[in-house]
Amino acid sequence: MKKKIGCGSQVEGKLKWWQLSLIGVGCIIGTGYFLGSSIAIKATGPSVLIAFLLAAVCTFIVFDALAKMSAQDPQKGSFRSYAKKAYGRWAGFSSGWVYWSSEMLIMGSQLTALSLFTRFWFEDIPLWVFASIYAVLGIAVVLIGTKGFERMENVFAVTKVAAILMFIVLASLALFGFLDEGAKQGVPRTINEVFPHGFLGLWGALLYAFYAFGGIEVMGIMTVRLEKKEDAPKAGRSMLILLGIIYIVSLSLAILIVPFHDFHGNQSPFITALETYRLPFFPHVFNGAMIIAGFSTMSASFFSVTTMIVTLSEDGDAPALFSKQKQKQKKLQFPLPALLLTTAGLIVSIVLSLLLPGKIYEYITTAAGLMLIYNWFFILISFHRLIKQTVWDKVKQAVGLLLILLAVSGTLLESASRPGFFASLGFLIVISLVILKLRHKWKEEEAAS
Questions:
Q1: Of residues 248 and 147, which shows the higher confidence score?
Q2: What CA–CA distance (Å, rounded) separates 8 from 224?
Q3: For residue 1, what pLDDT is reported?
Q4: Which residues are 10's β-sheet partners?
Q5: Please, which residues have CB within 8 angstroms of residue 369's CB and are 6 or more apart in sequence?
Q6: What is the pLDDT of residues 64-76, one digit of tens each?
Q7: Do 159 and 348 touch, CB atoms closer than 8 A?
Q8: Are 243 and 213 spatial neighbours (Cβ–Cβ below 8 Å)?
Q9: What is the model's pTM?
């Protein structure tokens, strides 16, 4: 049996729910967790665990809503299609383009991070060389098709989980005194030790915890591949339970081993936690794991944004060229113009990440990350309109919306992320102006049909 999905390619086979869970783990565990969690720890101390718990709760609520919509009405455009169905063409247009543009910018920062990780071994090679190599490999992942992408993400997921489990084992041995020459921080015993920067520190750190769960959008796009669409919520629950346990246990051990003020944003907290012990192999192994994690999330982003541009084109919200498939392109997973557009966007993002001053590009990528969370907001309000809700559903939706608002508003408390918040508003204003420009054309098309 063959099933037609995404951009109209033919792909064989269907996913079991546990396979989608593995893909979710592969798409989500990335540099946002391996590296970004250091920034969160620095901002809020041991209470970072509360930030990650709140982020996990919100992620569960958002994916549960997306999965229920997918089970009732499978759509290859996923959240963009549901936004359009719930609120009209403007909502689908804005959701799709916000997602595409934000992911393109984030991919540039991911490639830069991958290049920096690789220079751990090859110090004299320029960053652009590694960025170009990883970009080509990412394109290759897309070209091998949906089934190949699924297999690779499964392998990446197992590799990343194995690396974190290795840290958990080593950190546990260190905590109980089986490894020498390391200093233990101990369990925080007072409120001031748990919240060294108060509630405002926790509030400002929420966004970084949310980043560690980014990637559920790819799972939403992949739900059309499920053998049983009603298994989508179960796949999400299993994936988030696994992620939640891994995240909380590993971060708890890191905090117990090292004082929180010893962490810094340009090094993984897990390397920081064990660098005082005689484990010369660990930085190399974990650096490899971070490269796999970053490449995995970058490839997943490339796959999903290419799918998104095709569905936008099919719905008339992008030039028709991007969904046309010529006879000679049959073996490609996506129409060639869509691949070329995403590749061009990726090249621009790489150039920006390497040429712009660090702070300016950091502001842009922070804005892009915020725009992903804005799409989570759209998912919840679309669920409200498309699915008949129980009282419990309404409670979950209210909690999810509140947590999203807290994470977004928390960026105003941090000087490093505040410019990114205003930059994200700038992106939204530009997209809104484009929508105002196109509304007259859309009305004419509706009248004609």
A1: 248
A2: 13
A3: 33
A4: 4
A5: 102, 106, 207, 211, 214, 420
A6: 888 888 888 877 7
A7: no
A8: yes
A9: 0.84
Q: Which residues, 6 or more positions from 189, have their beta carbon under 8 angstroms from its beta carbon?
A: none
Interatomic CA distance for residues 392 and 31, integer angstroms: 34
List C-alpha distances in Å: 379 to 58, 179, 432: 12, 47, 18
Q: Tens digit of pLDDT for each residue in 332-355?
A: 556 788 888 888 888 887 777 677
**Structure tokens belonging to residue 102:** 């934000």
Contact 61, 397 (CB under 8 A): yes
How far is it, in rounded angstroms, from Cα 72 to Cα 383? 11
Cβ-Cβ contacts under 8 Å for 267 (sequence gap 6 or more): 35, 38
The 3-state secondary structure of the chain, one letter per residue: CEEEECCCEEEECCECHHHHHHHHHHHHCCHHHHCHHHHHHHHHHHHHHHHHHHHHHHHHHHHHHHHHHHHHCCCCCCHHHHHHHHHCHHHHHHHHHHHHHHHHHHHHHHHHHHHHHHCCCCCCCCHHHHHHHHHHHHHHHHHCHHHHHHHHHHHHHHHHHHHHHHHHHHHHHHHCCCCCCCCCCCCCCCHHHHCCCHHHHHHHHHHHHHHCCCCHHHHHHHHHHECCHHHHHHHHHHHHHHHHHHHHHHHHHHHHHCCHHHCCCCCCHHHHHHCCCCCCCHHHHHHHHHHHHHHHHHHHHHHHHHHHHHHHHHCCCCCHHHHCCCHHHCCCCCCHHHHHHHHHHHHHHHHHHHHCCHHHHHHHHHHHHHHHHHHHHHHHHHHHHHCCCCHHHHHHHHHHHHHHHHHHHHHHHCCCCHHHHHHHHHHHHHHHHHHHHHHHHHHHHHHHC
User: What is the residue-averaged pLDDT of the chain?
Assistant: 80
Q: What is the largest CA-CA distance in the chain?
A: 77
- What is the spatial distance between Cα 227 and Cα 229, in angstroms, rounded to a whole number? 6
Could you read off the pLDDT of 42-59 as tens digits, one per residue? 888 888 899 999 999 999
Residue of 310, 367, 363 lying closest to 337 (CA atoms): 310
Provide the residue type at 246 as one letter. Answer: I
Taking CA atoms, 160 is separated from 167, 236, 352, in Å, by 11, 18, 29
Q: Are 135 and 405 in contact (CB under 8 A)?
A: no
- What's the rounded Cα separation, in Å, for the pair 384 and 393? 9
Taking the C-alpha atoms of residue 237 and residue 61, their distance in angstroms, rounded to an integer, is 10
What count of other Cβ atoms lies within 10 Å of the Cβ of residue 45? 25
